[in-house]
Amino acid sequence: MRSPLFLLLLVSCSYTVQPADLPSSFYGIDVAETIESAETAFLGIETSLLQSADAFSLDVQPGVLIKDVGDDSPAGIAGLRIGDILLSYDSHPTDDPQRLTSLLTSERHSRIVQLEIQRGTEVLIADVELAMKATSRLRSKYFIERGLLRVAFSNTFEGMPQIVKLDDLSPLLSAGVAVGDVVQSFQGRDPGSSFELVRRIRGLKPGEKVTMTVTKKDGAQIKVTCESWQPETFLTEVGLWPLFYYKRYPGQDKGVFTCGNLVLVDLFSYERDRNEQKYSILGFFGWRTGALILEEE
């Protein structure tokens, strides 16, 4: 039979565990870029992401919003207007501007392409003859996600994200993903372009389940699952009253330790604040070491 003292100690035991703080740069998107000179297809429109009305939502609406149409441009001649929504380019969904850019960059000569346009509640089909122009510009080589999946993507000619680099610690490796795989779906949805996919990965929570469908180099499609990376957890507070109590303050280089809690006073206590340490015995005897000294220059 357990003694009342044992039960009291058991009830008085407590601890707190929390994950390590993530740096502010953790959720950034890195881009590797290169300068290239080539002829690229030209529509003559400026587009932007068509986002949800909720400013805090990462959901993307189908299509991209046409913000500007150039005079005498291929799109202008075909009748496209500012405010139209471009839904697809030759049957390829255009849910983000980067994918449309990739599709245009992949064109090697002028030809007629079919655009699906939404204007109000009406969906229209426009046949547009592409124009070609010589460009020398900084082009995104691949987009890097360094934190949650630790992977880099580039765009295929069809505007689909293809894995070009995998970190040794990427959770995708153990799931069977390899360099060269093309992502067909992410969390059950079209992945968008490389930039859009990295943006969606940034919306994951550490430790969240990830589901992807990828096409291997041999043409086989496989579904893979893994968990996004999550930071290590560490003990920040533990106590067993009245024997001892310990607490640390993450990111502040501070800590407290006491033992022998006698309700009104501690048998022994220790506090640390960066380079300063404070000791106390029974609350009557105390001393400090390593105190900071402020000096004026």
SSE layout and pairing:
Layout lengths: L3 H8 L1 E7 L10 E13 L2 E7 L8 E10 L4 H4 L7 E5 L2 E2 L3 H9 L6 E8 L2 E8 L1 E15 L5 E5 L5 E6 L4 H4 L7 E5 L7 H9 L6 E7 L5 E7 L5 E8 L3 E6 L4 E8 L4 E8 L2 E6 L3 E5 L8
Antiparallel strand pairs: 1-15, 2-9, 3-4, 4-5, 5-6, 5-7, 7-8, 9-10, 10-11, 12-13, 13-14, 15-16, 16-17, 17-18, 18-19, 19-20
Question: How does this model look, in words?
Answer:
With 297 residues, the protein is mainly beta. It folds into three domains: 74 residues, no CATH class; 100 residues, Pdz3 Domain (Roll); 89 residues, Pdz3 Domain. It contains five helices and 20 strands. The strands form four sheets. It has a seven-stranded antiparallel sheet with strand order 1-15-16-17-18-19-20. Strands 3, 4, 5, 6, 7 and 8 form a six-stranded antiparallel sheet that branches. The protein has a four-stranded antiparallel sheet with strand order 2-9-10-11. A hairpin with a 2-residue loop joins strand 7 and strand 8. The longest helix is centred in the middle third of the chain and has 9 residues. The protein starts with a helix and ends in an 8-residue tail after the last strand. The mean pLDDT is 81.
